Amino acid sequence: MADNGDDDAQYRIKEGDYVVLKRGDIFKALQIQPRKKVIFEKQWFFLDKAVGHLYSTKFEILSGGNLQPKKPKEEESPADAKEAGTDNRHILDDGTSQKLTRDDIETLKEQGLKGQEIVQQLIENSSTFRDKTEYAQEKYIKKKKKKYENTVTILKPSCRSLAMMYHGREPGKICHLRYDTLAQMLTLGNIHAGSKVLVFETCAGLVLGSVMERMGGYGSVIQMYPGGGPVRAGVESFGFPAHFHDTLHDFPICHVNALLAGNLDTAAKDPCADEKQSNTVEGQNQPEAEPRGNPEEQSMETNAGDDTADQEKKEREKLKEAKVQGKRVKLEEKRKKLAAAASLLEGRNADGLIIASRFHPCPVLMVLLKFLSPSRPFVVYSQYKEPLIECYTKLKEQGGTVSLRLADTWLRHYQVLPNRTHPLLLMSGGGGYILSGTTVAADRAKPASSQRADEPAPKRLKVTDTEG
């Protein structure tokens, strides 16, 4: 029984967990904190009452911002539409069919009526509802429930939900990477537990978090980052356990050439020491001021202020020393992380490479391919096909890769209902482009010898006759 309780605990919401709120097609990721007001879709509430319930539970927002689990029987349609018309063409939508006004609806809300009861009132006060067809009635009910029912579903963070959240709210942050394209990248990259994967991305950490989720905390992930430091906002939204982060390493892309040349210096210098030394030297070079006037009178006048000045001076020195010590600790941690990542890259035996960046992928791909073992996959994503065409041409000229494939992804949603299955009217225009391939061991000595051997014999004879 204890084991069952432990297994059930991982599916229950706990305080401090990262969760994803869902309402319709809208998602929002956040962390559960006690008595913290959450604003989602123009509604505010607290997540305290959700602690202890299972993930994927649908909650109803009550007055005061409290959450209450919604019972399955409440999911049924608020009205059994037994009476239905056969045609909607004679129904005129002039805005006068609904007897309830906006003020009446606000009054119903103030009286404490739930969203389901408000929808029932709207149905009863509609003069054209009974004349609509059965399909139109269901569509009307679904539309009103979406508007007036105060419900929210709490999901466990996953690659799919976070990708849909970013693509729906801020697609520019993830280079317009769609969730089906991300799934293809993870599959083509052969991401699995126990592998060593290189990731270069500027998608707010979404691709990096997806790779870590697929690996399950086993293996090693090396994030190659541009700029001053790695960006991992999306990784935090996954809410990984601590041992997941032990497998994550980072390495600046600007040091890759030095690592390949073998002259990378992982010993970080301490600029604070030089600064401290220069300040000390400046202090020693300053001449001492000569006292003026009677020494006894000067001593009596300054004794009262010396204690305060000495105390302030000591406090400033302590703060300065604490800052210097903090900088030293950070530099030492950064040096250790750099050395650990460099040791993983020096073997040049990575199992996979994934690139999804707003930068031009060609120079990054050509450099990072050198860290892959033979017969290993690589995947490059770009919102546009022109950079990937250049990568494709370059790889063909350089060699060392096989099974090169440049493809675009296409997705269409379908409504599957009785007697009305059809594609949705609105769909995504494009999901970007993917270049994938496999590395092979290239024999550098073979091309020179094969060039002479493949030369036609008649041509050599002809040249010899000419020379004779």
Tell me about this structure.
The protein starts with a helix and ends with a helix. By secondary structure, the protein is of the alpha/beta class. The strands form four sheets. The chain has a seven-stranded mixed β-sheet with strand order 10-9-8-11-12-16-13, sandwiched between helices. It is 42% helix and 17% strand. The radius of gyration is 34 Å and the shape is flat. InterPro entries: TRM6.
Present the secondary structure layout.
Elements: H1 2-9, E1 18-23, E2 26-31, E3 37-40, E4 43-46, E5 57-61, E6 67-69, H2 102-110, H3 115-124, H4 134-148, E7 151-155, H5 159-169, H6 179-188, E8 196-201, H7 206-215, E9 220-225, H8 233-238, H9 242-246, E10 248-252, H10 256-261, H11 271-285, H12 295-346, E11 352-356, H13 361-368, E12 377-382, H14 386-398, E13 401-408, E14 414-415, E15 422-423, E16 433-439, H15 446-453, H16 457-467
Parallel strand pairs: 8-9, 8-11, 9-10, 11-12
Antiparallel strand pairs: 1-2, 1-7, 3-4, 5-6, 5-7, 12-16, 13-16, 14-15
Number of strands: 16
Helix content: 40-55%
CATH fold node name of the largest domain? Rossmann fold
Tell me, what's the shape? flat
Overall pLDDT metric: 81
Q: Could you say how many structural domains there are in total?
A: 2
